Amino acid sequence: MTSFSKEDLLPKIPALKADGSNWLMFKNCVEWATEAKGLIEYLEGTKLRPTDPSKDQDPLWEPSDAEALAVAEYPEKYATWRKENGYVKQLIGSALPKTLFIKIRNETCASAIWDALANEFENRSRVVTIEMRWKLQDQRCAEKGDVRAHFDKMITLH
């Protein structure tokens, strides 16, 4: 079980641009941050919301010992899932422009938010890659320019 203190700050994630031009950098930073916190399963959709074992049971249902234990553990499991899922949602949401936040704000699971963003930008990534390659090819260092700054810019574009 992962616990967070009030002093636990969100990792620094670069803001996602509305046009998605920095999607790949944003995606990697979010994946790394959630992996570092042990919460990558919330992005992948493999950490499912726990279900209440007593839901939809007959009023006369008499649970076995194992079922009674599952019923007793459910509130804590749900609270943990909700807190961790909320943390990942906040991690993503804090780096989104308002236009994108409005599109995903009603999603309850971090994985659904992540999937919506991926669907929005994965295909655009190819176009952005081509544009970035053109920009990289057009880069020239000025006659008396700072070569180090020029290389840094090229590395960033790459």
Question: Which secondary structure elements does this structure contain, and how are they paired or packed?
Answer:
Blueprint (H helix, E strand, L loop, with lengths): L22 H14 L3 H5 L20 H29 L4 H7 L5 H29 L8 H11 L1
Structure report:
With 158 residues, this protein is mainly α. The chain has a domain at 23-52 and 60-126. It is 60% helix and 0% strand. It contains 6 helices and no strands. It has helices at residues 23-36, 40-44, 65-93, 98-104, 110-138, 147-157. The longest helix is centred in the middle third of the chain and has 29 residues, at 65-93. The two termini are 39 Å apart. The model has no long low-confidence stretch (mean pLDDT 85).
Query: What would the average pLDDT be, to the nearest integer?
Result: 85
Strand/helix succession: HHHHHH
Q: Pairing-aware structural class of the strands and helices? A: mainly alpha
The gyration radius over C-alpha positions equals 22 Å
Biggest sheet: strands, sense, closure? Answer: none
| Strand elements, count | 0
Shape: elongated
Q: List unreliable stretches of 5+ residues.
A: none
Binned, the helix content reads 55-70%
Termini separation comes to 39 Å
Strand percentage, roughly?
under 5%
Report the total helices. 6
